[in-house]
Amino acid sequence: SGGTGVKGAAVPSLAANLTGKPPVADKNFLSEGITALGATANRKFIAVAERCTDVAVTTLYDATTLRRKKVLISTEMAARDVLSLNFSNDGKFVLILGAGPDSVLTLWTTDRTPKPVAVLKLAMDR
Which residues does UniProt call coiled coil (predicted)? Predict the structure, then answer.
């Protein structure tokens, strides 16, 4: 407990909280809190990673209007938490690191139709 997200709110909870509008993303994903945040160098986009019911969901927002632009859900990542995310200098890519014993590092495009362009599974030593 003590998470930063709105418990039980459907993704994207940030947009709902800041704009007062209902969530737009798939209502099957219930947010259990924000796990990572990031912004592009030019401050055009904000990325919010949230722990959800079954998966980790990263939502990209327009930093000026706070409107949801893209929702990134990796089928490769079994973890529900994103440990870290970072945009490329030009903002055209976002690198997302999932939590867990077998963490997954995914490089996404941020263009009109975002897609993973590289996936690396990392086995963590215990």
Answer: none
